[in-house]
UniProtKB/TrEMBL annotation:
Family according to the record: Belongs to the eIF-2-beta/eIF-5 family.
Biased composition (Basic and acidic residues): 206-216
Domain of life from the UniProt record: Eukaryota
All copies of domain W2, residue ranges: 249-411
This protein's record includes keyword Electron transport: no
Protein's GO biological process: formation of cytoplasmic translation initiation complex
Entry's Gene Ontology molecular function annotations: eukaryotic initiation factor eIF2 binding; GDP-dissociation inhibitor activity; GTP binding; translation initiation factor activity
Protein name per the record: Eukaryotic translation initiation factor 5
Keywords: GTP-binding, Initiation factor, Nucleotide-binding, Protein biosynthesis
Pfam families in the record: eIF-5_eIF-2B, W2
GO cellular component: cytosol
Nucleotide-binding is among the record's keywords: yes
Source organism of this protein record: Lentinula edodes (Shiitake mushroom)
Amino acid sequence: MASGIVNIRRDVDDKFYRYRMPLLTTKIEGKGNGIKTVIPNMADVARALSRPPAYPTKFFGCELGAQTSFDEKNERYIVNGAHDANRLRELLDGFIDKFVLCKSCKNPETELIILKQGRSEDIIRDCKACGERTGVDMRHKLTTFILKNPPVKVKKGKKKTGTGDAAAGVGGGGDSPDAEASPAENGEESDDELTKKIKAEAKDLNNETTLAKEDWSADTSPEAVKQRIKALEGGMSGVSLGGDDEGSDDDANSPYGQLGKWVEENRDSHEGDTKTFLVAVYKKAEDLGIEKKHKSVLVLAQALFTDDVLNEIPKYGPLFAKTVSSEKHQKALLGGVERLVGLSHPDLLPAVPKILMALYQLDLLEEEVVTQWGTHVSKKYTDKETSKKVRKASEPFLKWLEEADDDSDDDEE
């Protein structure tokens, strides 16, 4: 079964396009006259589009001339007959074009509105991006279903989807056929599949793993670490440490020095098995007794992230979800970002808004913490001039946070 995250507009070949959705998946069940196509993740796909999942399911039925059925309580959506996943994905593109994308700006940040004019009713796409209101083709059979099952207006919270721009948004309004708002609409955790996967994997970072049984785990002993430190004199290859409660900056034998060096030595040796590597990193920090220290987050950010940080944040997200547990930890993570883009890779300065958005999406940063950081220059992690440059670069993201707050306040009035 295929899985993954794709652009809502699949004709847009941009990995930083901010409107994303899960790739539609299918499962064939039954045989003979009872054969049917189940769409396991239809609820997630529809949530990304801010449309009731019954709408695209019914659209498939209209286009294929097939019966459809929905069990909203159990999130089970079915199209009768055996249908190829690629065919349904093409049809979903058609649904998005006809019932989601703004006709004017092609942005999916719309909501459906039913306008009554005398005895006639029209379905309008109200675009939150450009402000245009464009009608849908009322000749399509789905419009009859929508009019009989109109979207319910629910109170929206701030959304956390999209990584392409600093002022990222979501596809669509907040319409749903259910009376209850989705978690994302209540300002709670996003239902984005990547976020759920990262949080689930973070829970797996514990001692009860096969890691302890593997031969290479024995090399994490203090004796082995000391041997590696002696063999690699000269410090931590660009990983500088700020003052903290345990170990000095210049002491490679401090717990933080050992952790940073170990991560750098092993970072490129896990051959694609990222999860096992992250478990190993956490176990190493635990062996050193610093897995809960905020300074460990600073060290990990510096040792793990490179100039490919935007692709690395989702990969290493489970580890940071496990280790970032307080405001201090968040500030340490921001300190690591500050050093990464301010000292190690200054060419990444323009990407600061995207980096912050990616971390914010994974709930690694809270709005209050990142806003306070972005508006107060500090010499704690870099020199004052570098600190100013990084915070200046973060302004588009901070502006997005402020505007999103204003929108949320307007919705509550």
